[in-house]
């Protein structure tokens, strides 16, 4: 589990194929993410995707990403900056919201523009995920826990979510490099997922 509070911006330094039709091995420079308490087998969120460290030294770690994970995410198949967060400990503060590190889908940036000291970020969300998003609810974008300011349902299905990014979020994450048309990893709120399941079971029992 994670909180969606990005601890550091690292960089994928090296991408090695695991074999024909297989996944990739990533060597990640950890930036300001302290690795002293990270061991082989521990989980680290990379751009919102939970990955298992298979090698760790003082400044870098290595993960292997399956072909399935690559097909469901963006930003894990080439060198570049990535948002990093170590797994949540039970004694940690929950500064964001409960995040599993399991990417639910890919969104597309519709608007990214300055508004005063902050930035407006609008993301187009695919139809299967749109029902989980609500005003003042939580969503994880590229591993960053964010609050939804507005939801606009689209005639053809799906929705646009509008988010206000404060200067600290821009400075401390990879979101500063976004532009219209960019793809982002999305994870819906864990509680919303369970609520839908429970309501579905309740409706089924009434029939």
Tally of individual helices: 4
Biggest sheet strand order reads 10-9-13-7-8-12-11
Please summarize the sheet with the most strands.
7 strands, antiparallel
Radius of gyration: 17 Å
Q: What fraction of residues sit in β-strands? A: 35-45%
Output the structural class: alpha+beta
Which regions have little confidence, pLDDT < 50, spanning 5+ residues? none
Mean pLDDT: 93
The share of residues in helices is 10-25%
C-alpha termini separation: 36 Å
Shape: globular
The total count of strands amounts to 13
Question: Could you state the order of secondary-structure elements as H and E?
Answer: EEEEEHEEEHEEEEHEH
Q: Could you walk me through the main structural features you see in this protein, from its secondary elements to its overall organization?
A:
By secondary structure, the protein is of the alpha+beta class. It has four helices and 13 strands. It has helices at residues 67-72, 127-130, 167-172, 190-206; strands at 8-17, 24-29, 43-46, 49-56, 60-65, 80-86, 105-115, 118-125, 138-141, 144-147, 150-153, 159-165, 183-188. The strands form two sheets. The chain has a seven-stranded antiparallel sheet. Strand 7 and strand 8 form a beta hairpin. The mean pLDDT is 93.
Layout of helices and strands, plus pairs?
Elements: E1 8-17, E2 24-29, E3 43-46, E4 49-56, E5 60-65, H1 67-72, E6 80-86, E7 105-115, E8 118-125, H2 127-130, E9 138-141, E10 144-147, E11 150-153, E12 159-165, H3 167-172, E13 183-188, H4 190-206
Antiparallel strand pairs: 1-2, 1-6, 2-5, 3-4, 3-6, 4-5, 7-8, 7-13, 8-12, 9-10, 9-13, 11-12
């Amino acid at each position: 589990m994670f909180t969606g509070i990005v601890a550091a911006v690292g960089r994928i330094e090296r991408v090695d194929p695991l074999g024909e039709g297989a996944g990739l091995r990533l060597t990640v420079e950890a930036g300001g993410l302290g690795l002293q308490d990270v061991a082989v087998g521990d989980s680290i969120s990379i751009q919102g995707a939970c990955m298992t460290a298979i090698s760790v030294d003082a400044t870098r770690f290595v993960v292997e990403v399956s072909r399935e994970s690559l097909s469901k995410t963006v930003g894990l198949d080439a060198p570049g900056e990535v948002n990093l967060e170590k797994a949540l400990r039970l004694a940690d503060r929950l500064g964001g919201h409960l995040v599993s590190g399991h990417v639910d889908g890919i969104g597309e940036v519709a608007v990214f523009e300055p508004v005063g000291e902050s930035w407006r970020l609008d993301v187009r969300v695919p139809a299967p995920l749109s029902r989980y998003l609500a005003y003042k609810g939580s969503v994880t974008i590229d591993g960053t826990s964010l609050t939804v300011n507005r939801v606009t349902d689209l005639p053809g299905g799906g929705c646009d979510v509008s988010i206000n990014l404060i200067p600290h979020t821009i400075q401390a994450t990879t979101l500063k490099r976004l532009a219209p048309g960019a793809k982002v990893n999305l994870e819906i709120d864990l509680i919303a997922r369970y609520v839908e399941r429970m309501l579905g079971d309740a409706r089924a029992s009434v029939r």
